[in-house]
Amino acid sequence: MPIRLGTGLRIGAVTAAACVAATLTLTGPAAAAEPRPDNPNGATVAIASNTVAPGGTIAFTGTGFVNDDGSGSVVIVKINDGAIRDSSGSDIFAEVTAADTTGDISGSVTVPADLTGGGHWLRMLTGAGAGDAVRSVHTERFTVAVPVVPTVTLATDAVPAGTSLSASGTNFPASTTVTVKLNRGATLTTFTTDAAGSFSGEAVPVPDDTEAGSHTLNFLAAGGVSVPVPFTVVAEPGGASTSITITTVVSDTGALSLRADANSVLLSNPQVSPELDALVSTGALPTVTVSDLRAADPGWSVSGQVGDFTGAAGTIDGKHLGWTPELEEAAPGQTVVAGSPVAAGTGLKSGATLGTAAAGSGRGTAKLGAGLELRMPTTVAPGSYSTTMTLTAI
């Protein structure tokens, strides 16, 4: 049954960080002074990245740091020709021994947490060890900056299939196309960021055939930006039905008799109420025929009462079943009045009047009916439930 209970059940925002940083915010002092002249003596060096966060590490490699006898040199590494020092006051940030024959080196340097700005470099030096050739060579420049990470926020992270999610984002590349995919597969929508690299309230449709459960939206943009955002497709309630067995107990009052056209009623599959506070099933009471052949014509009254609904999945309080009585047919000369409606919640558990005939106007045959409404709590477990209604004529 198509009841969308998940929409709006959760309130709040869900934010996912990008897999890669798209831009960098540069802070701190101006670029460092120019490097001293190199004396590479056949050595070359490189760094793995031109950006690093404060307190982060930057990897380096090199080759050609080999002595005349084929042994590898001892290489010390400084930042900005020794102008930068670590927390202990040392200007040496790494010391590695090059491989014999090739003079290859590799390692990493942890930059100080208070180092910022652009134009920094690593200086590799040899010659301090016995027999080491003297070399001095610097890497290309790098920037120390706090990365600005693209983020996406969903207005809600739980929706039924066939609806839409509202997405907003910041720190994306400016004026660029963002492609949204479902589980890195089908493209759901595309849109363009503004000049600040932001977007707001973009509708992302969730296909009708998306299975209930956990999924991921992937927001993709130029420069390798990929922001994964988890969300949940809410399962629609399904398969629950409610049935009742209605039994008529006829009082032995002689010429006053009572009969129901059927001895069972199957209510409709529950539907969520417009207020989203109940599951509602409806049905109709089988026609109840009242026959009064008593000559004294004392009048009569027919009432109904139910117990709790029970089933393998649990119990539903009988007070949740209400009815709206109606007079379907009356004989000439009869004055028959249908009982007052009884709302679900007050219910038929305490008994209620289906119809009455006053003294002097009840002789003959009348037919009564009623619309039934069962308003169950939304917490009722799926399953089949039944109860017995007792109809009594006096």
From TrEMBL:
Residues spanning the signal sequence: 1-32
Keywords, ordered alphabetically: Signal
Keyword Signal attached: yes
Protein's recorded name: WxL domain-containing protein
